[in-house]
Amino acid sequence: MDTIQKIVIIGSGHVGTHMGLAFRLAGLDVVQVYSRTAAHAQALAGKLECGYTDRMDALNPDADMYLIALTDDAIEDMVALFPYKKKLLVHTSGTTPLDALSNGSSRYGVFYPLQTFSKDVSLDYQKVPFCLEVSRDDDRAALEHLARKLSNTVQWTNSAQRRMLHVAAVFACNFVNHMYAVAADILKKQELSFDLLRPLIEETARKALENTPEAIQTGPARRNNLKVTKKHLEMLKENPDYHKMYNFISESIRKKYGFIH
Amino acid sequence: MDTIQKIVIIGSGHVGTHMGLAFRLAGLDVVQVYSRTAAHAQALAGKLECGYTDRMDALNPDADMYLIALTDDAIEDMVALFPYKKKLLVHTSGTTPLDALSNGSSRYGVFYPLQTFSKDVSLDYQKVPFCLEVSRDDDRAALEHLARKLSNTVQWTNSAQRRMLHVAAVFACNFVNHMYAVAADILKKQELSFDLLRPLIEETARKALENTPEAIQTGPARRNNLKVTKKHLEMLKENPDYHKMYNFISESIRKKYGFIH
């Protein structure tokens, strides 16, 4: 296959929306959007100025690639309904293995954007790493070429790497955000603004990326300061959830730096 | 008291070093550095072009403020040795209460910089929030005036607020960094670069600060996607520590969003 120009997007959620916008910005043709719910398909098709359908058997047959941007659970059902057995079919999931697409077509792959997508937040797609995998060697060049039109960072990963990458992303994004949320909640109860933490949050991210997180760890657990750790645990005892997290994360830090085994 | 111009710094670690540099940048006079270890005092005094001592009874008697930048455990010992009972004595600790200084002087306060300090990382001090507390109302204006010379963000907090602020900072900085470290470790084992997570880490911090962390939470736990959560836990079972953290943080997220009670 030479190049991928015409694309059908299957799914109209956050990922489908962002991928559609990214493709258009890169000069590619999104020719159709599919959603089980016609109104959703229509809404996204309006944004992308393309056709839409709510029937898998009415998918545009002339596209170069069909991109499934659905939740992991929904992928399998859609794959079974995919009508074009010789068309390149890809999914965008961190967790679903490549082979989950093997029933859909003889040519299949993965196009996994490593980013957190919100529906109404615009993004610089050039900075989003795309993790690729493909079933047939002769689709490899075209898929990489496509990804490089969208982004400066393209990485080939196998399914085992990609699912671990997804776990790492859960820690570095979802869990990090939950730590922010706990902090915000604690401050709110003290009638203090979350904005007070802004420079600390920015500096922590900046330092970890400029050095390594391992090298720049600070705080009571890192110094094995049990007096402060104990005091903090006592202050958190009214919230068993926060107490538990404080305890386990502190223990994990103390283990990492050799204070407990 | 009118203004604070001459300052003695007690302690030569990360915080003492950064405070000394910040004072100098703001046009204040750091007149002396104390450290228990003469060589440490001398090294910092060299950077700040001021005097130094390793004896508390040789502290310069002419300063307007004496700033204790020591670990929480060391503060108490130093306070007992502080010789000038009518001089303004402040500490920089998030956790130590204001009253811990009452044996040192009749005028005391807190000058807590809410930031993570590394010895060789330069900082924009204007962005560091300073949390203030003071024992006597007539020192209030001078302390605030001093803080505003250093920073754009000055916040009066009582000891209860400040120690909760410190706990919040542990979550938003130390624990966040440990999440980064876990992610980096997972990627290293897959021979993938931590740099792949850079856009995700930056975007997560940016979004949380532009909105609220609560509003922008994403991920399998937020969606109550137990299939993925379970798969991830299985993938982490060789590392009991990571497994435990993944489990408890996911549970905490699911509780927060009403999926479990």
Provide a descriptive summary of the structure in words.
2 copies of one chain form a homodimer. Chain A is of the alpha/beta class and 261 residues long. Chain A has 9 helices and 8 strands. Chain A is elongated and about 65 Å long. The mean pLDDT of chain A is 95. Chains A and B meet through helix 5, helix 6, helix 7, helix 8 and helix 9 of A and helix 5, helix 6, helix 7, helix 8 and helix 9 of B.
Beginning-to-end CA distance, first to last residue of chain A: 54 Å
Rounded average pLDDT of chain A: 95
Strand percent estimate of chain A: 5-15%
Give the assembly state of these chains: homodimer
Question: Quick one: how many beta strands of chain A?
Answer: 8
Strand order of the largest sheet of chain A: 3-2-1-4-5-6-7-8
Helix content of chain A: 40-55%
Structural class given helices, strands, pairing of chain A?
A: alpha/beta
State the shape of chain A.
elongated
Tell me the number of helical segments of chain A per DSSP (H or I, 4 or more residues long).
9
Which features characterize this protein?
homodimer; 261 residues; 9 helices
Topology:
The structure is a homodimer of 261-residue chains.
Chain A: E1 6-10, H1 14-25, E2 29-34, H2 38-48, E3 51-53, E4 65-68, H3 72-81, E5 88-91, E6 108-113, E7 130-134, H4 140-150, E8 154-156, H5 159-189, H6 198-210, H7 213-216, H8 226-235, H9 240-256
Parallel strand pairs in A: 1-2, 1-4, 2-3, 4-5, 5-6, 7-8
Antiparallel strand pairs in A: 6-7
Helix pairs in contact in A: 8-9
